[in-house]
Description:
Elements: H1 4-12, E1 20-26, H2 37-55, H3 62-72, H4 75-78, E2 84-90, E3 93-99, E4 106-110, H5 116-122, E5 128-133, E6 137-143, E7 148-151, E8 160-161, H6 171-180, H7 196-222, E9 226-229, H8 232-241, E10 247-252, H9 261-292, E11 296-297, H10 300-308, E12 312-318, E13 325-327, E14 334-336, H11 347-357, E15 361-365, E16 376-380
Parallel strand pairs: 5-9, 9-10, 12-15
Antiparallel strand pairs: 1-2, 1-4, 2-3, 5-6, 6-7, 6-8, 11-16, 12-16, 13-14
Helix pairs in contact: 2-3, 10-11
Amino acid sequence: MNALASEFRDVLSGVHEPPCLSLYQPTHRRQPDRRQDSIRFGNLVKALEDTLRREYPARDVRPLLAPFHALAADSAFWNHGQDGLAVFGAAGMFRVYQLPRSVPERTVVADGFHIKPLLRIVQSADRFHILGLNRREACLFEGNRDAVTEIDLVPGAGRMVTDMPIGDVDPAVRAARVYDTTLGAPTTRLGTDATQDVVDHDTDQFFRIVDQTVLAHHSRPAGLPLVLAALPEYHHRFRAISQNPLLADVAIDVFPDAIPQDALRERAWRAMLPRYLQRLERLSDAFHVAKARNAGTDDLRRAAEAAVAGRVATLMVDADRIIAGRLDGRTGEITLADTDDRDVDDVLDDLGEQVLKAGGDVLVVPAERMPSSTGVAATYRY
């Protein structure tokens, strides 16, 4: 399984030899609904094959489709689904991403990958991290309004959990042991003669290690707000220690294991909703000011020209709109299609890809929160 957040810019918005194959389908976490997922995937692969043979009659399509067929036959993979699936293939490249939210079923064969559904997941303004914390254990979730998914807090090792005492361990040795243990960082196991001072000291040490790990491996790379989920007695202690500027001023007063995951999502989203709305309002206000000064546009063709020239700092696109056609990455010219056929690329998708390549930010926004009615709102760098 590939890591979407870390690969998105470099892999999916990079240059690949056409044809590029994109496949999306909704999937299921539980039986019996999950039983149909592999069958539906096989049908979508057949749709990709039909398009390839029609559009590239002289091309040997078997090498392109071979990894898709192998995935279809992988029973272990289909036993562990999430809410959506995105699969991409091109010459010498194959990527599979399980998604924390459902996506519309679609296949696209084009010069580049169809990435707009992933933009909504990776670039949306509603994403956040949840740090579950107690004195002996820490875990991390990534979420949005629709779903939360637990992710590795320590890369490759899951949660930070251990029974190794740390109260009497030298700091240098303790730091080394954090990554030598099977599951990550140390936690305190108390004996009957332990004093409260020792408990507090060891708790502080553990919280400090957790904070450093989250900041280095998650907050800095992703830039997402961090919601603390812990019993109330740990809130002040962790905040007093934390050096993470993305730690939100809202929190959840329970450790995640104590409630169902959907309840965790609901409580986190309720806490983050005001912050989310404020951010969209700030972006919308900035766009309107920029547009009034000719430093922004909601005209699709002008936005495309600016994106190709590397001038777009922030692009907001309508989450639910598809503009069938293609954007020329060299000239900025847009060619609209006569049909909204599922195999036709999306101009908004191409536009977002151009902005990402130039180092700009792309946010996929619900239609009711868009500051324009055209499907795009671009703010220029200069």
